[in-house]
Write a structure and sequence with these properties.
Length: 156
């Protein structure tokens, strides 16, 4: 019997973050506590490391694995940081950022109203990944965003 697989599997979106982490099992527990993640699956190696795991935060899947230098899979801690921030939209940004910090995240940018219509704060998780957590509070036209951005930069 032959079936045609969907090009994008059910439950996934077009783009899915894949995090490389030192101690992925510990990170899963952190993401559960900090962001309300649910664990979908994990594939351990014989030595107990995770070669692949998946969690869901809200309706979004996130894949992760343990660092594996042999496969050139290096964590932010190994490479000295990350240039990527995952944007996480939630109903109550203040509560989620506070919960993440209480769970061990480092506050990088306090929660504040932003000119583009979000209330946002940024944290670094204990594994070196950055999360910009936001609640959308205002629908702003592209023209108004441009006007507000110009005003912000003129004030500096």
């Amino acid at each position: 019997m032959s079936t045609t697989a969907k090009p994008i599997p059910d439950g996934y979106h077009t783009a899915t973050p894949y995090l490389i982490i030192t101690d992925a099992a510990k990170a899963i527990e952190f993401y559960k506590e900090a962001f309300g993640a649910t664990e979908c699956m994990r594939l351990p190696t014989p030595d107990g490391k995770l070669m692949h795991a998946e969690i869901m935060i809200g309706d979004s899947p996130i894949m992760l694995c343990d660092e594996c230098p042999e496969w050139n899979a290096l964590s932010p801690q190994t490479i000295g940081g990350t240039a990527v921030s995952i944007v996480l939209y939630v109903a109550d940004v203040d509560a989620v950022v506070n919960r993440a910090v209480a769970a061990g995240a480092t506050l990088l940018m306090p929660v504040a109203d932003q000119f583009w219509g979000d209330r946002m704060g940024t944290v670094a998780d204990p594994f070196g990944h950055k999360w910009s957590v936001a609640t959308h509070t205002e629908d702003v036209t592209p023209e108004e965003i441009g006007t507000r951005a110009k005003a912000l930069f003129a004030a500096k």
